[in-house]
Amino acid sequence: MKLFRHIARICKWARGSVVFVTLISLSIYMQLIQVKHKQNIADFFLSTVFYVPQSAASYLVRASELSKENMELKKENARLKLKEDLAREYAIENERLKDLLGIIEQHWDNFPTVLTQIIGQNPGPYTTTVVVSRGAADSIFYGMPVFTTRGLVGKVSKVFTHHSMVQLLSDPNSVISVASQRSRELGTVFSKDNGNMQIQISSYANLAQGDTLVTSGFGGIYPKGIPVGVVTKLDKNNSEVLSYGSIELLQPVESLEEAFIIRKNTDWIVWEWE
Amino acid sequence: MLKFLLYAFLFFVAVILQTVIVPRIEIQGAQPSFLLILTVITALRHGSLAGCFAGFMSGLLCDVYAPVEWLGAFSLAYCTIGFVVGQIEESFINLSLFPKIIVLILADFLKDAIYYFSIGKTSDDIPKIIYSLTLPNAIYTVAIGAIFFYLLSLKTEKKVEMHKQGP
């Protein structure tokens, strides 16, 4: 009897070990395959298993907040209407002056925008991606910039029928071209370890702590002039060609609830695997 | 079959909690991991086979939202946790509340160590990241996990009492 119990235990252990080794091998295999296959696996799970529970839960949470938010938005709307009148005056004046100077520029506020809700985010230690409630059915395409009233959030990285994934600026794979609002010096902003945002700039550039950075318009994805962040620390090293600094995003990725998508197609793009 | 459906439902709930609720209840950047709690509970109650399967599914969930280059890293970490915790359960069958909490803390640290190693962090970076990210998350996870463990132990005690009283 004891022998049988031992054999049963060994069988159970062996079965567990076989499953464990299989699953571990599968995990390692997933790490080793090509990025496009990885993307296919991720897409499959995102568009099937995880979309429905996320949407349902997000809807429930948001419903309780909507009434309060509606009141605040009405107040905000009234205040903004007053500002809009003033802004319209400035815009007309600006256009007139530009006509006089012969400048033709394409600003981001020329493009139509669509409001979207954040319905999920990646559960890992770094927030690199969020899921938004607009998709191909709302004429959303790959590469469209996403922003809030505070500043730039990221870009649409994957589009499904009724939802899309947004690659945030904190994604280690995201690099954007920025300009200082004060001096117009150009630099690139990227995410370093632990989601800390960094700027890379020429050592001789006229950039100072506290400068606001906006998108430069280079790269073909983000239109010019969207606020990105503020320089919090600058390590200038004149013996090197490039210097680095830390920036604080104007729109922290942790507190995203709604965002706007700019319906602007990319001017040009280098596809990674096509 | 009923048990499987129950765990599938719990998994569904954990997904909702992890992806939608957790960002709203974070404290100073620290977030609890409901998926880890579910993996550890499954492994402690049903052994290494169920543990490593639940861990793999939880890991896959995290993987699909993480940068695609790192696909498989969370699966590897969670699956290992499920298996190792399951082995502990099989070796020390009656773990009381306090050892279970210790197991949960160790599981959190081990999970992150495997994960960061898998995504190519060096042995110099890993201790720093574990100190700054894993420690606060582990404390939060354990605080919530302890509540779940306590509720489960109450349920188990009730079952044992009913069993003692007989039909």
Indicate the topology:
The complex is a heterodimer of chains A (274) and B (167).
Chain A lengths: L1 H31 L2 H13 L3 H51 L11 E9 L7 E4 L12 E3 L4 E8 L4 E5 L6 E6 L5 E6 L5 E6 L9 E4 L11 E9 L6 E8 L8 E5 L12
Antiparallel strand pairs in A: 1-2, 1-12, 2-5, 3-4, 3-12, 4-5, 6-7, 6-9, 7-8, 8-11, 9-10, 10-11
Chain B lengths: L1 H24 L8 H32 L7 H19 L5 H22 L6 H41 L2
Helix pairs in contact in B: 1-2, 2-3, 2-4, 2-5, 3-4, 4-5
N to C succession of SSEs of chain A: HHHEEEEEEEEEEEE
Helix fraction bin of chain B? over 70%
User: Unreliable segments of chain A (pLDDT under 50, ≥5 consecutive)?
Assistant: none
Q: Report the mean per-residue pLDDT of chain A as an integer.
A: 81
CATH superfamily caption of the domain at 113-266 in chain A: Rod shape-determining protein MreC, domain 1
* Alpha carbon gap, first and last residue of chain A: 63 Å
- Secondary structure tally, helices of chain A: 3
Low-confidence stretches of chain B: none
**How would a textbook summarize the main sheet of chain A?**
6 strands, antiparallel, barrel
**Total number of beta strands of chain A:** 12
Task: Provide the gyration radius of chain A in Å.
Answer: 24 Å
Largest sheet of chain B: none
Under the CATH scheme, which architecture of the domain at 113-266 in chain A would be assigned? Beta Barrel
Globular, elongated, flat, extended or rod-shaped: what is the shape of chain A?
globular
Assess the beta-strand content of chain A as a share of residues. 25-35%
| Cα shape of chain B | globular
